[in-house]
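User: I'm putting together notes for a lab meeting next week and I want to include a structural view of one of the chains we've been expressing. I don't have a solved structure, so I'd like a prediction I can at least talk through. The sequence is below, exactly as it appears in our construct file.
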Amino acid sequence: MSPVRQVPDVLPVLSPGRHRRPKDGACFMEWASLLAGERWSDRPACTHRLLAHLARLVNDTVDDDARAGLVRLVPDVVGLVGDDPRWDYEIASLAAARALPVASREEARVLAVGLMTSERLIAVHEGRPADDLRPRARAALDEVPGEAGWARRFTAGLVSVRSRNHPGELVVEHAVEALAAAPDGAARLVRLLTEEVALCRSLRGGRTTHDVPSSSVTTPPAGPTAPSSPGARLSAQRS
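Assistant: Thanks for the context. Below is the predicted structure for the 239-residue chain, given as structure tokens.
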């Protein structure tokens, strides 16, 4: 499925939460379902499950100004799907790495475990030693040495975890909460979603994440702050 590259002028305004019909507004993924020609849904088949989960969280967490800036990203998620389990590992790894430097101690432990588990599964998949963490992961863990040490002990025997048990959604939810609490939370969340879209485009093209430097990602405009409602709680309200 090829992504739609031009946004029609008559689509609904982006707003938080789920919507019964387009005239009531649309969240990020409902808008994507329209562009893909699918049934109206905030869980369309056109986008990878974990990337869509992150997009819904970011949509529901940022303020109105930042949300408006997400519009340009919607066409880029149409067609971003893949069966390779590395998609889950890579999305979670990037989210955890970006959130660790601003996370609370409790959140940092969860994120460090998620980051290490993801990185070890990627390493095993690529035929590298399980503890061969990539530079981005090492740099993020160096920001929280105490929590990183705890996570290393906790994850010592988890290299063989199967992909269906990979805690991708939990990692993404904690990452969104941590980033939303930062003074520039909205900008950080928009930046993360932008990077994750670029990451998934590289995975779909068969390249590795090393081919997508963060400096090459253009961030849509974002408001100065994020609202107090954490993304994971907003996600639970959708259920």
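A couple of points you could mention at the meeting. The CA atoms of residues 90 and 118 lie 7 Å apart. Residues 1-9, 208-236 have pLDDT under 50 and may be disordered.

User: Perfect, that's what I needed.
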